[in-house]
Design brief:
This protein has about 625 residues and is α+β, with helices and mostly antiparallel strands. α6 packs antiparallel against α9, α15 packs antiparallel against α16 and α19 packs antiparallel against α20. This is Zn-dependent protease with chaperone function.
Length: about 625
């Protein structure tokens, strides 16, 4: 099923749920029963065939057709038993008990009684900024449920007790009585089908092929048909949290989690990994995280993070609604809250014990990556020193490179003079103009828009970034500045034009023959070294080749095609790996990553790209 058909079925399920909720749930139950009927039917058929064929084979009637029927029946029996006994992985993290954290378990018990939920079988603590509860089938499709709650240590650091309990009440709300039990059963069934669907992809043989064909037809339709129920279940869980802890606490928790989660990704983790420049051995993050999450986020960042979160629409790739829809459904205002003044670590009892445990675990898990990052930062520092020593004779490109690398070592590094020097060396240098805009104070709208106008007038491949940045600037309220509707309209139109150009460029990169309009790569020694280090960290890659791709849409843009050899990796894993490499490789331009397969073949890659840039 393609994405358009899936979206269509999701919309149909949403309309059916809105028109007649009871009829919709009956339809969901009937479709779920179809899957169960298929499993039982296969099991009964297999048992009947075995009961018929096995005695005849044991009696010495070795006819080919009879033996073939017995083998097929045994294969069908095995497949059916796998469907019945599919198991899910245990939660990650550290299991905690009431003896470890009595205050937390007392609070969970109060929530359980109020929502009329089932008991929890286990509570886990992990290092993520999240909380989740799940019912997993104990014995496959027909088994009982195991209820497991997982709480992130960083979430306990970020939220005060009331807001943390609002998050936990939301999670427990998924297990509430009545309709909640039905939704939880459907959720468990969805997990079982998903796991069975994934586990059988590599199976061969006619029985497995027939089973996989049924799953390929059934599972996407089951996921689409149950989507509206899962989405409504999220809203109902929010309402339960608001009823138990108060609407204000529930809304504030949603917004604070969104903004502080964005801050962790955008600032904390980047800053923590930069510490590898001074420390050869890994440093645990959670002790430092505790102090920083207790502080209010910087106002400009919080406003922008909230704006972006509110702009995200509720899609079909996630059953969770968007933040704006969740806040409005609770009757709250989508505004910055008063920040939590202290975390909820007190619910854990000996907080220092858990922080120390997760710091040690993080250091152990990330020791290899930390060592490689330490070496990379050392190379960046050496390159900066070399560029600084030759600055008097340096080109505009080298000045921009030095400024960029300095900002990688320290985002607050004073690099504005380097961009200005590059512009004096070459007026209209695109990289220098973009870097200069990024160093201007956020409150100086006039200077930022003037710089973005210069970048737009210079043409080239930075127009999309200039227009997007200008639109974001003009859409962001600034104290003492009036809304400029005319300028915003102008830049929105420019953004639309630039997006069309970017779409044409990406189509040119991805849709034209991979070896047309190519040339040997133009990477310098430092740039190539960084890409090689990143490829070395990607274990499935055993060899890689890089060529430049000349784009007619943007003749000055550095664009690349990267070919990787991934032996032993199935195609469904190769595709996401290549997309991740496209996002993660430190190439000075957009890249298309392809793997050696039917097209292009390894022989074609070797013939056209010649010498690999990386071999393991």
């Amino acid at each position: 099923m393609d994405q358009a058909d899936f979206v269509h079925l999701v919309r149909l399920s949403e309309h059916a749920s809105a028109e007649n909720s009871r009829a919709y749930r009956r339809g969901v139950a009937a479709f779920a029963a179809l899957g169960y009927a298929w499993v039982l039917g296969c099991l009964l058929l297999a048992g009947a065939l075995v009961a018929w064929a096995l005695p005849q084979v044991l009696a010495g009637r070795f006819r080919f057709a009879l033996v073939w029927v017995l083998i097929a029946a045994l294969g069908l029996l095995w497949t059916s038993l796998r469907a019945l006994w599919v198991r899910l992985d245990a939660p990650e993290g550290l299991q905690i008990t009431a003896r470890d954290a009595p205050a937390l378990f007392e609070a969970l018990e109060r929530i359980r009684r109020k929502v009329n939920g089932p008991p929890l079988h286990a509570v886990y603590l992990d290092g993520d900024f999240n909380a989740s509860i799940r019912q997993t089938p104990r014995w496959g499709l027909f088994g009982g449920a195991v209820n497991t709650l997982t709480i992130g240590l960083s979430l306990l650091m970020a939220l005060d007790k009331a807001r943390l309990l609002a998050v936990l009440a939301h999670e427990y709300g998924h297990l509430r009585g009545g309709h909640g039990r039905f939704a939880a059963w459907i959720y468990r069934t969805r997990l079982s089908w998903l796991r069975l669907h994934d586990s059988m992809r590599g199976d061969a043989g006619p029985v497995a092929a027939a089973t996989q064909a049924f799953l390929d037809w059934y599972f996407p339709r089951f996921a689409a048909k149950t989507f509206a129920m899962a989405r409504q279940d999220e809203y109902e869980a929010d309402r339960i949290a608001g009823r138990l802890l108060g609407r204000e606490a529930a809304v504030a928790a949603l917004i604070e989690v969104e903004i502080k989660g964005a801050w962790l990704q955008a600032h904390f983790w980047a800053g923590h990994w930069r510490a590898a420049a001074a420390h050869a051995l890994p440093v645990g993050p959670y002790q430092a995280m505790r102090g920083q999450l207790a502080l209010a986020p910087e106002p400009a960042f919080a406003r922008e993070a909230l704006r972006q979160a509110l702009a995200r629409l509720s899609g079909v790739d996630d059953t969770h609604p968007g933040l704006r829809d969740r806040v409005e459904a609770l009757g709250g205002a989508p505004a910055l809250p008063d920040w939590s003044r202290r975390g909820a670590l007190g619910l854990l009892g000996e907080a220092e014990r858990w922080i120390a445990h997760f710091d040690r675990a993080w250091c152990k898990d990330n020791a290899s990556d930390w060592k490689q990052h330490h070496a990379w930062l050392g190379r960046v520092r050496a390159r900066v020193q070399a560029l600084a020593a030759a600055r008097a004779q340096g080109s505009a490109d080298e000045l921009v490179e030095e400024a960029t690398l300095r900002r990688q070592l320290d985002p607050q590094a004073p690099v504005r003079p380097l961009y200005e020097l590059a512009l004096r060396s070459r007026d209209g240098h695109l990289g220098a103009l973009r870097g200069l805009v990024q160093t201007l104070p956020e409150g100086d709208r006039a200077a930022r828009l003037q710089g973005l106008q210069r970048l737009w007038d210079a043409g080239g491949d930075q127009r999309w970034w200039a227009a997007r940045t200008a639109v974001e600037e003009l859409e962001t309220p600034r104290p003492g500045l009036e809304h400029d509707a005319a300028a915003l309209k102008l830049w929105r139109e420019r953004h639309r034009q630039a997006q069309e150009g970017e779409a044409r460029a990406w189509e040119e990169l991805t849709q034209t023959p991979c070896f047309s309009q190519t040339a040997p790569h133009d990477l310098g020694a430092f740039e190539l070294g960084e890409v090689q280090a990143e490829l070395a960290r990607c274990k499935p890659v055993v060899a890689a080749w890089i060529v430049c791709k000349r784009l007619r849409e943007f003749p000055g843009r550095r664009a690349y095609v990267v070919f990787v050899e991934l032996p032993g990796l199935p195609d469904d894993e190769r595709y996401p790996l290549c997309r991740a490499l496209e996002r993660g490789l430190s190439l000075p331009g957009p890249a298309l990553v392809l793997w050696a397969g039917e097209s292009p073949t390894l022989q074609e890659i070797r013939a056209h790209a010649r010498v690999p840039v990386f071999t393991r």
